[in-house]
Amino acid sequence: MHDTSKFGPEERIPCIWLTEYYHYQFYGQPFTYPAGVEEQVQAAIQHHVTTNRHHPEFHADSNDMSDVDLFEMVCDWTAMAQEFGQDGGSACGWADKTIGSRHARNFLHFSRIALVTKEHKKAVALAQAGIERCPEQASGLRAHLKTVLTEAGGWRIYWRLF
After folding, report:
1. What ranges in the chain are assigned the alpha helix state H?
2. CA–CA dist 142, 20 (Å, integer)
3. Contact criterion met (CB below 8 Å) for 103 and 134
């Protein structure tokens, strides 16, 4: 079952507060957590992302995420984009704005999402951006791109790039 940790003692009450925060934010109203609650919310978020497989933080190496993990992650991101009316419900758009594109790992995830959703050109562009912005991790991104493009039948695209 997806996100069962939200019903456990570490996350249940903090998730209710986080939902309230988002509600106020959505309607442009000010919101302040009661004393000590914001820290509980942050701890619950940390617990959540390190307890559930569909979050990259669960894995020592985010490349270990299975296709099911990726699909669940995309569903989460799409739901957030739709819930908040961002980027026409785009998982990539929401994640890029919310998580950012500072790390090669993020480019890798975005590239994998684009491939899963059959957006090959977007996948290539994201991988290329990761290679340019994170040269220390370029070899890993190139290897990943070769693997996923080959699996997706896009090996010709890969060989044109490299």
Report:
1. 12-26, 37-51, 67-83, 91-98, 104-116, 120-133, 138-151, 155-161
2. 42
3. yes
Cα–Cα dist 91/113, whole Å: 8
Residue 80 one-letter amino acid = M
Q: For tokens 């070899």, what's the residue?
A: 139
Q: What is the pLDDT of residues 7-16, one digit of tens each?
A: 999 999 999 9
Cα–Cα distance for residue pair 94/109, rounded to 1 Å: 13
Question: Given pLDDT bands bounded at 50, 70 and 90, which one contains residue 102?
Answer: very low
pLDDT at 158 over 80: no
User: What pTM did the predictor assign?
Assistant: 0.62
DSSP state of 33: P
- Rounded CA gap, 104 and 126, in Å? 10
Domain boundaries, the chain: 1-52, 65-162
Which are the contacts of 44, defined by CB distance < 8 A and separation ≥ 6? 10, 11, 14, 15, 18
